[in-house]
Amino acid sequence: KKKTKYFSKNNNNILRINYLSENLKNSKFIIMFRDPLNHSASLKNQYFNFLKIHHQDSFYIKYMNFLGHYEFGKNYKNYGFAQTMSNYKKEDINYWIQKWINVYSHLIKFKKSNVHFLSYEKFCANPKNTISHLIKEKNENLDIDTTTIKNKNLNIKNNSDISNKAYELYEMLKKL
Which of 27, 34, 41, 70 is most enclosed, with most CB atoms within 10 A? Predict the structure, then answer.
């Protein structure tokens, strides 16, 4: 429809970010990152939420497989860069913190002129200005509905070495 902007949210794009950024050089890729403990708790909750749904109705497993979404539940898969998870069980928050570390340690390697990292917390504080700044379109109406954007800080506490490692990476991402 003769539009010049296309926004897509697709978690699976992290699996192909290098290919996409190399082959779509005029595009901008925004990788959002979130406080590691809050994000890890959310991932854990979603995993068990989908596990329950998948046990109740197998249609949802087939549907998620059809879509290629293996992030949660019975059809959960770890991808190559996130496979060093054997020290923890999925019930342990440290499993999900390690996954967060693995994913963002992988993604940070692909920081390029068209790959940008965006803090979820910063975005929630001022969604329109944050996106406008990233795409450098200050006066354009981006038509973003911000009424449902809220920072869901869960105030998770975990004083482990793995949490400290996650927060070191989180601070590096915030500087990008």
Answer: 34
